[in-house]
Amino acid sequence: MKVICDRAALLDAVNLCTGVVVSRTPTPVLQCMKLSAADGLLTLAATDLEVGLRLGIEQIEIEQPGEALIPADKLAQIVRACDDPTLTLETEDNAMHIRGENSHFKIYGYDPKEAPQVRDFAGVKVDCEIPAGSLQRLVSRTLFAAAAEHSRYAINGVLFDRHAKKMRLVATDGRRLAIARGECSKGDGDSSCIVPTKALNLVNKLIDDPETTVRLGVEENQIVFAIGDAPDAAVLTSNLVEGAFPPFEDVIPKDQDKRVTFDAPTLAGAIRRAALLTNEESKGVRLAFDDKMLTLSSRAPEMGEAEVKLAAEKYEGESLEIGFNPGYIVDALKVVDGGDVMIELKAPNKPGVIRTGQEFTYVIMPVNLQ
Amino acid sequence: MSIRKLPALLVNQIAAGEVIERPASVVKELMENSIDAGARQIRVTIETGGIELINVADDGSGMQPEDLPLAIAPHATSKIEVANDLEAIATLGFRGEALASIASVSRMTIVSRAREHDSASMINVEGSNESVVEPVAGPVGTTIRVRNLFFNTPARRKFMRTPPTEAGHVREVASSIALSHPDVAVVLEHDGRVVFDLPGGQSAKQRALAILGTELSPELLELNAESDGVRLWGMIGRPGIARATSRHIMMFVNGRRINDRTIHHALKEAYRGLIEPNRHPTAVLFIVVDPAAVDVNVHPTKAEVRFRHQAQVHGLIHSGVRTRLREADLAPAVQFAGGSELKLQSAPWQPPQEFGTGRGSGASDGGERKSAQSFVDYFRQLDPKQKGFVYTEVKSALEKEPEIAPLVQQQNDSNSGGGFAESDELPRVQQAARVLQVHSSFIVTQDEQGLVIIDQHALHERVMFERLKQRVEQGPLQSQRLLMPAVVRAGRAQVEALATLQPMLGKLGIEAEPMGPESVAVHAFTTLLFERKVDPVQFMSALLDEAGDNKFADDPEAALHEVLDMMACKAAIKAGDRLTDEELGELIRFRETVERSSNCPHGRPTSLRLSIRDLEKQFGRT
User: Fold this and answer.
1) What is the distance between the alpha carbons of residues B468 and B474, in angstroms, rounded to a whole number?
2) Which of A172, A175, A303, A328 to mutate to test the interface with B (most CBs of B within 10 A)?
3) Per the CB < 8 Å rule, is B535 touching A283?
4) B5-20 per-position pLDDT tens digit
5) B64: three-class secondary structure by DSSP
6) In CATH, which of 3.40.109.10, 3.10.150.10, 3.40.50.2000, 3.40.50.300 is domain A252-364?
7) CB-CB under 8 Å, A363 with B483
8) What pLDDT, in 10s, does the model give residues A205-223?
9) Domain range annotation of chain A
10) I need a surface site. Which of B209, B327, B499, B514 has the fewest CB within 10 A?
């Protein structure tokens, strides 16, 4: 294999691929990425056996087609550190030479035949299609609420739940629940699966043009994303999270009797200020709604106290004091793309709800403040 | 079978069974008699562990010739006269049965001369046969010689251990009596060899050190406390010299060696969290109370006493010991056992990977080179709350001033002399990290005495524990409600134990209730634990396991501490967690402000110190 690559394009692709590779594994080929040059396309492929990624690069010139399997981190470091506009990749047995204008590297690799299989989109039955921008928004509005480490594995991922052309993503960590809704095209019937957070982080990074289309294939235990149009589409394959997603519909409260609307960035700013005097043991911020005024306050023993006032002209309902983890509220306000949010409450020990129209619903459990 | 009155010898032998168990009991009774007789010198000589011979000679008041036969009669004593005297016993002996008992089970000779007599008198007793009193030559005082102990009670004789074991018991008894009477010279000889020879007129501290071993003296803390007429003086060991047995706990009430469970408990409580639960501190405690406030007539060997105000004694010991430990700097020194235990090898130099961590603190270099004087100035401007903590460190720094000064001088010289110190490319130790994390597990820093090595998990666990404890005292911990209850599978016993846990769970911000016979639903969980990524299900099942085993049965406060400790352990940073500069700095600051930061809540040390003196020694510079 001998290929002349545009370094910037190669760097983008290599960086994305290193996001898949595991750094600590007893199997050296899992620390590698596979390069294949054929038909005017250089394809990079990497997998950790849970998530697999294939990326095509068009900004290249193939002098000799072929394949290579080489350590991902070293390749990434070299491509990152060079400043030549182009780099030449050439294989010699299992090793690869990387040449710039004044530099030459030789990395020892492995036999490409040992590379683990990374799927492409060929033969995948399309479940639905969705504009990349919409998918990206749905993912960012839920991913943050998924459990990072949890014994209930089913919530270590985001639920993809499609009913005909209506798509919703749901995530929870047991203390809050985020639901984002959107439209897709070409969808028939229903489908439902839980996608691990690692794959969705990659999906968000892979989308650079919101106008392109993402094709989704949902299989028995895998989901396949094809981002962009053939032939250089990025294909991400991920195992699904096993288990049943908790019955989340039951926890969305329906009898909230206190409502208020805020400008999201204004509220987020006020909460951040009030949260300045919280610490690990005293994490909560008190929200007191009274007489068209919201008073946010926090108190950490031996540290100090904070109080921030915010007009709440649109508050409907009786006075209420309720505590929340400020981070949980701000997390949601960050992903609603500005504009107004509606907050619905009931009682100090009952959940609060943040909504933007039909698109986003966020349920958040309160903190007991003493 | 007809009932008959037992002969006097048999009565005495039965009584002896209670008082005289082994040679050590004889030594104890005889030495106490000597003390009660006002002796200034006591010489104890034993052979074959005391089985063949025990000889106790004193220079006390001695006995009149006509008193000698009485001395060996049961319940004959000079120490009390009427029942009222029992209310306030100030002498060590009082029951009047010791000599009679010993005489009944041995061959005993008493030689005694009262000060006003020209000659001594002697009496021989062997079982029930006593000789006539005859005059002999002898010094003022009493010498009692006991041979062939238990010669006439073979059953008892069989229970004696090997001579070295018996000698060990004698030594124990003799040293406790010596400990409580530092003004009396005590000599103990075994088979012609001097076991110890303690001069008279020593202070209590000198005597304690002489008995415990002067090499322990840096590990011992002197202790003084008083409350409501109860006085406590003692020497207590740093947690580092805790032992596997409680043999190194010696307690005295009004000079009498006792073994009291209340005092034991108070002492163990004071050390709680500083030593591992199955180890025991080294301690010599002297308690002085009004004789009327303590009943010593509870046990034939007087090993147990009963305090009239038990809680007060408990409180005094607990708070006295605790306060002293809190004042002390408890970081143990790195042990060099003849250079073998810890081998310092000249490791190949490797680029210090984490040198970046402390670059920003270059401005505080001056702080490191503080002379003892500026340290004192610093101390003066501290607020009073912190003063108590650093006081002992300042004191030791002042004592070491002559040592520190030349060291500081050298450092300054090398800085100004070598031109490289200012260069950016070659970081020198002086300007590099003040705090260094090693292998993401240990933190290395320095204090005025030398190098301090900190176990990051142990220290953080202690920090979390103290903060949680403080926080719980102010009110329940903040708790985060759950969208859906977290379900914990548990055995029936555990689910039943949940009810007793409820008051504690309330304080901890945990809301849980039984859900069927074999599971528990958690509705709300401590905010802090969520922040620290502790899983409610795992935590609750660990907690329920402990509760199911009845670990929390009796003492609610101990149980709360136990659970706070579980929380602290789960929430603390682990070995292997890489810390940022800020986190490192914060942890080091906590070490200075948090109580008992020298040990983790399980009692393991959080830090070790390698003093400059040790370093110099290891590098062969002294």
Assistant:
1) 10
2) A175
3) no
4) 767 767 777 666 667 8
5) coil
6) 3.10.150.10
7) yes
8) 999 888 899 999 998 889 9
9) 2-114, 128-249, 252-364
10) B499
